[in-house]
Amino acid sequence: MPESPPDAVARPGLAALLSEYGVAAPHYDESCVSPGRLRGHWDAFAREVGPLEPRQLASAQARVDRQLHENGVTYNVYASSDGPSRPWSLDVVPLVIAGGEWERLSQGLRRRARLLNLLCADLYGPQQLLSDGLVPPALVFSHPGFLRPCHGVTPADGVWLHQAAFDLARGPDGGWRVIGTRTQSPSGTGYALENRITISRLFPTAFRQLHVEPFAPFFQHLRDSLADRAPRDGEPPHVVLLTPGPFNETYFEHAYLARHLGFTLAEGSDLTVRNDRVYLKTVTGLKRVHAILRRLDDDFCDPVELRSDSTLGIPGLVEAWRRGGVLVANGLGTGVLESPGLLAFLPAVAERLLGASLDVPSVATWWCGERAALEAARERLDTLVLKRALPHQSLEPVFMADLDDAARAEWLARIEESPESFVFEEYLPLSHAPSWQPDGLEGRAVMLRVYVVADGHGDYLALPGGLTRVAGADRHVVSSQRGGSSKDTWVLGAGPIDRTGPALLRARLEDLGHARVVPSRAAEHLFWLGRYAERSEQDARLLRATLSRAPDGDDFSPLFWRTVRRVAARQGQIREVADASVPDESPIALSETGLDDPAAPFGLRASIAQTVSAARAVRDRLSSDNWRLLQELDAARGAGGGDGLVETLDRLDRHVITLVAVAGLEMAHMTRDDGWRFLSLGRHLERAQGVATTLGEVAAWGGYADPQMLEWLLDLSDSAITYRSRYRRLPDWTSVTELLVFDETNPRALSFQLAKLAKHVVLLPDASLSPLLARLKRAAGRTGGPDPAQGALFDQDDSIEAYLHNSARTVAELSDALTLRYFSHAYEPAQVTSVL
């Protein structure tokens, strides 16, 4: 590629940073021709960003890290419920690529994508390439990604690959080589988009002046290609993004892309097959799905014809896809194209299928299943890297030059036992780019993942730049298992870019006509998000109201502390004790137990954890601000054990404030669809249970006669100011119950919750909950007698204790009814799937 002209030297700020920056041979230096002398496109970058002093770059890197943390951008290290979520790391310095170089690179990758699509069609069709010996049958048939049930399938418009990704590395000669292919469900576009948004805001002037190529056309083509090819049957296209769930390593990206593209995020259990068509289980019934953008590996997609032990897939999906009832992107069975061994045979396949060579070559590859290739590799082992040829087999690349004679002999013996399982690749020293580290700029190895998407006209469109991955502390190896970072990738355009194109405007206008569907699973998670968030707030308020009275604890009666403990035990914050026992813990000990005891089933710590877990499952439906608050809440829940009284009260104050802010964002920013309605139902149901349970315990234990208990109840319900402004007298049981039970204008009152529940139930789709609705309305309309503390009756048939008990029972029955009707689909006929 052309180097910078003689006068294209680094500006003073960048020159100072690069004075100690260097890349050792034989690694290619992405930014510099020589130390301190920038390549032409990097010089343009340095000129537009201005003087990059260390202090400024360090501050910018801190802002990037903070923003990613606040946005909850993560990459799960292990796909399990107890695995840690690794924060996504983004280097403040982008990788800059010249426009001319990118044009040649993208053209070559588009050709490679067309080739792979034709290759897949042949492997699952006539298999002429296997018959003619251009591709060894053993390489294909031994690969678990080759799915025999997919043989004979012809996808819509002959497109198997709707999108693909290529892992690229630049060698010492400056040329790019393909070292890996991702065709099942290529990941990373969501992370690339997040990187772009973050870095473009950091350097807005440079981004604009350098005419950095936009990402928007790529995502628009992805949307349009799926909608246009889907078997719509005259219906508006409905596309879902199929995810394995919240514990998948790239779940953040799944939720992020679903929200960005306007697709419904669905798990396998959300979908069902009826009459060779796929349907989404929603709170309004079954809704047809026309296209599936999957983020689930091939063999997990259908337990009927593929992996029978998969609980993530959709029974009958292969047959529905085979018969043209649904578009699946990418086509099932495309995982075989990821085999590293295929790289050795693609040049000959390209000449056969395209009549042209590959513009972007693969790294030199020898498949050990071919005796001649294995022998050729033996002659140059010191320059090769050993890799697995089959997926689901964990093996870090083995650098043969690093092995002694005994270890090398051992590996060669293993290859002889199963030669089709291994490939040799030529060792390629990766290029290095400047990466900001605490001590300044440092050269680190980089790899570039480029994405292409079908354009609907037989060709592909490349995402300009893609995702750059950066080596970790060892500096030379790029691996997600070894940490490292990522970069935004800037492709410099030739002229001004229209970043408000009509395509995006059209997409927004079209979306206005379609209501967002709510899958039953999402509705259930939103319902429990509301319940757990409200429960967390109640727990925090109870502990705060109790602990704030600790300094005056000697002045309180045993009845007061016994009742408080009983309420806490009934709500699960502490463990149950015998009714007649007097708690021997101090108020501080009781509160700290409810705050931090992991054995408390519904203690504050557990309730917050459940809140965040439910939110994570519906992350695509929450605003960034809402998720940021939940992240802060989750981070703070385990901190502060062993603090003193003041510190613990301060901690509880922060919890309450954060939870109130979460509730406020739900009210202020969430669309009033069925999802929000179930969230609100969960909140009001949990609050109704809390009020009924707390006041019921007070009534049962005789606490209504204790002024201290009445003050505690008002504090607990955040109604003390309302009470004093309204009654202007010391609390008594009659006025307290009037305010906390029967006042429909008090958002903390039981009747307010019952009225809200009745209002929401009426608006639910096909509610069929008439008996419960009638009871809710009757309960919400009750008015109290003159002195419930003395056993006065309500409407001559029940006491306040019975009323509270019956109200709690009614809302519990409502919770069960909602689960059966909307979440479990217990009343739907069983699914029957047959394979002919």
Key words describing this protein structure:
836 residues; alpha+beta; Dna Ligase, domain 1; seven-stranded antiparallel beta sheet; 24 strands
If you had to describe this structure to a student in words, what would you say it looks like?
This protein has 836 residues and is an alpha+beta fold. The chain has five domains: 12-85, no CATH class; 95-341 and 430-496, no CATH class; 364-426, Dna Ligase, domain 1 (2-Layer Sandwich); 520-670, no CATH class; 671-825, no CATH class. The chain is built from 28 helices and 24 strands. A hairpin with a 5-residue loop joins β20 (440-454) and β21. The radius of gyration is 32 Å and the shape is globular. Residues 4-10, 78-84, 501-513, 578-584, 785-797 and 829-836 have low confidence and may be disordered.
Q: Level of helix content?
A: 40-55%
Number of domains: 5
Structural class: alpha+beta
The quaternary organization reads as single chain
Unreliable parts: 4-10, 78-84, 501-513, 578-584, 785-797, 829-836
Total strands: the figure is: 24
Mean pLDDT: 85
Q: What's the Cα radius of gyration? A: 32 Å
- The geometry reads as globular
Largest sheet: 7 strands, antiparallel
| Percentage beta strand | 5-15%
Number of helices: 28
How far apart are the termini? 57 Å
